[in-house]
Amino acid sequence: MLISTGIPSKEDIEKIMPPAERLSKGSVVMIECFQEIACNPCVAACKFGAITMEKDMNSLPEVDFDKCTGCNVCLFKCPGLAIFIIDQTFSDEFSLVKIPFEYRPLPKVGQYACGLDREGKERGWFKVNRVTSGGKRNMTYMISLEVPHDLSMEIRNIQEGAYRDA
């Protein structure tokens, strides 16, 4: 499915998903990188040693979820926008889903953004909790969305310019 559509299968996602026990402890990375290509900025970015590659920089990244602090640094370094941060402990009702974003205009904190799943299908409107810059030399921003727990593993993008006030 991934090769023909670019959309990972349920099995692909299950292989890289943090265990439920780790999700219950706070922010954690989820790396949706499924193709072996020469790329390793996420490994270099992780000062906790949570992200490794088995053989070389062509291998798929692997995460030691016990070492991951959910610090967000790797999200800004991934050129493929394949890294997400999930915090299912954000509140009783909502998870905080942090996604990489490189479009303009940016949503504003407090607005609602149209959330999309991996297939680009609309899944609802979610409150923008925070908009974080990757720095002066990095065009990637991190958009933090308040997402109901049952959708926290589904929302992976927002529709460019589809923002509305509360």
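Second entry:
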Amino acid sequence: MVVVEKLSKSFGSFQAVHELSFSLPKGGILGFIGPNGAGKTTTMRMLTGYIPPSNGTVSVAGYSVFEESMKVRRIVGYLPETPPLYRELTIGAYLDFVASIRDVENPKVRIGEVMDEVGLSGLENRIIGSLSKGYRQRVGLAQAIIHKPELLILDEPTSGLDPAQVVGIRSFIQRLAASRTVILSTHILSEVEHLCDRVLVINQGKCAAQGDLKEIKKRAGGERYRIELQGESKRYIEPLSKISDVESLNLLREDDRGCSIEIFVERDIRSELSTLCAQQTWPLLSLSLYSPSLEEAFLSIVGAEK
């Protein structure tokens, strides 16, 4: 669906994006994340044809963004961080204008469908400037999907919204992804964990990591087991290390209450750990599977890059 090869963009002597490459199949949601100034918005503007690259290529559904720009624009929807709204217009008038420049068939029917889809039914006569940020964001989403795009690019779609509005927009994005490909840029990493199938981390204009959530979280150590026992750790380290497939052990804590040990292993060993504790009469306090958050993985990746 989307193929990006060695995409670069320079503004004078400053290189905002440097040889960025990734591919995205049709369907699903890609989480596009990185620190401020990493090059996310610049990349998304190049994907939409809004600005030209300095080097590299981008194709969407087989069309070159830079050589077949009009064909690409017909199949791409874009919601920038600040939606392109005319505040003096009503919602209905604004969407009618967007439908006309998008050459939408049966615009009145399609506007009704879109307003219902984003939760704006019955509000077509409301002035956009009088709307809350959450409702303005809905109008922005409506203009991005009114032409039924195959690729939808969303830049910080939940920025500044209250928790209830965030839940509503998240649910809407999930529904959208059922019939199209979505690229989602956000600083809310829990949002990426909830919504995205794949993640691309960009830092200083370069791809720092990409893959599914499990692959990204491996950069922070991946899943591991945590066992808490009474007594000194030296009693337990050697027997635990002899469990098959254990990659490494990490002593997290040792004090008067006992010790906490982290076990890195690819398979589920909880049953074996329980059996071992019973056989050795170890005083087991707790046993749990720990999965690092995307935030931990992100900090690990960005920190390593720095």
